[in-house]
Amino acid sequence: MEGRKRVLLIAASILAARRLAQYPVEARVPATMSAIADSIRWAERIMAEIDRRWPVKDGRAA
Description:
The chain contains two helices and two strands, in the order ααββ. The longest helix is centred in the C-terminal third of the chain and has 24 residues. It is elongated and about 50 Å long. The protein is 69% helix and 6% strand. α1 crosses α2.
């Protein structure tokens, strides 16, 4: 399970970085926090879709 958290962190970080690049560096505003939260939700959706398409069987990847 820890590996899945790491994958979500990496995916969310990539998504957040792309979104946050639109804002000035000093912009510590609600839009920043919203972009991070949105990125986490997208990463979770991506992982759910991966699990749907390639389910884990007997504790090992299929």
